[in-house]
Amino acid sequence: MNQDTQHVHFVTGRLAERAVRDIVASVADEFRFEYSISVLPITVAALMTPKWLLRHLQIPDQADRVVLPGHLHDELELIRHSFGQRIECGPRDIRDLPTFFGGKRLRDAGYGKHSIEIIAEINHAGRLTSQELIETAQRLVRDGADVIDIGCTPGYQWNGVGDAVKLLVDHQVRVSIDSFD
Q1: Which of 1-10, 11-20, 75-84, 123-132 shows the lowest per-residue confidence on average (mean pLDDT)?
Q2: 21 domain-assigned
Q3: Are residues 53 and 131 in the same domain?
Q4: Which residues pair with 36 in a beta bridge?
Q5: Residue 36's domain spans which residues?
Q6: What is the distance between the alpha carbons of residues 82 and 60, in angstroms, rounded to a whole number?
Q7: Which of 4, 157, 165, 167 is the most exposed place for a label (fewest CB within 10 A)?
Q8: What backbone phi and psi angles, to 5 degrees, belong to 147?
Q9: Is the domain of 94 the same as that of 127?
Q10: Which of 124, 141, 125 is nearest to 74 (CA)?
Q11: How far is 63 from 65, CA to CA, in rounded Å?
């Protein structure tokens, strides 16, 4: 490796590994940097939490920069506290990686033919107070959920489900309902 060439280390999960490898190779060639990639033992990178990441991440000595999945942006300072300032968050969508380095967004790039969203369920939501419901939903969204599924309790009629949906929507949370009724 040329001493003037920067080494960037990328972190991902198993599901996005192929796309990350393909896109990083292209971006590294265009922007002239060396790279390495850690594929951590988690299927979906968006489900990594800082605590989990701190237990699993190993940074190569030659890394000048470490690019984490973009959804970890809110907890970046906690992660930097353990690993140093060379840690940064990339984009939430790997197709935006070229823009992260100053290029143009990739279109399709053979990736993302199916749009997916992460749904997190709050089981027995009717048993929670309004404040507990909001706090739980917001925590799940911070952890990467796109939609919060309000789980009802089988055999129990919850007359406040409409109010719960309105409450979460008023807090900019996308909602679905999991119910037998």
Answers
A1: 1-10
A2: yes
A3: no
A4: 9
A5: 7-100
A6: 15
A7: 4
A8: -135, 140
A9: no
A10: 141
A11: 5
Facing residues of 7 across strands? Answer: 34
**Residue by residue, what is the 3-state secondary structure of 73-101?**
HHHHHHHHHHHCCCEEECCCCHHHHHHHC
Count of domains in the chain? 2
Q: 107-147 pLDDT, tens per residue?
A: 655 555 556 788 999 999 999 999 999 999 999 998 888 99
Inter-residue contact 21 to 97 (CB < 8 Å):
no
Residue length, the chain?
181
- Assess if residue 87 is contained within a domain: yes
Alpha helices in the chain (DSSP H): 17-31, 50-56, 76-83, 97-100, 130-142, 161-170
Structure tokens given for 156: 């129990």
104: exposed, middle or buried (Cβ count in 10 Å: 0-12, 13-18, 19+)? exposed
d(CA 164, CA 80): 36
Residue 154 and residue 90 in one domain: no
Domain end (from 73, 100, 127):
100
pTM over 0.90: no
Residue 3 confidence (pLDDT) above 80:
no
Q: Which two tokens stand for residue 123?
A: 């089981």
Q: Are residues 130 and 68 in the same domain?
A: no
Give the N- to C-terminal CA distance of the chain in Å, as an integer: 62
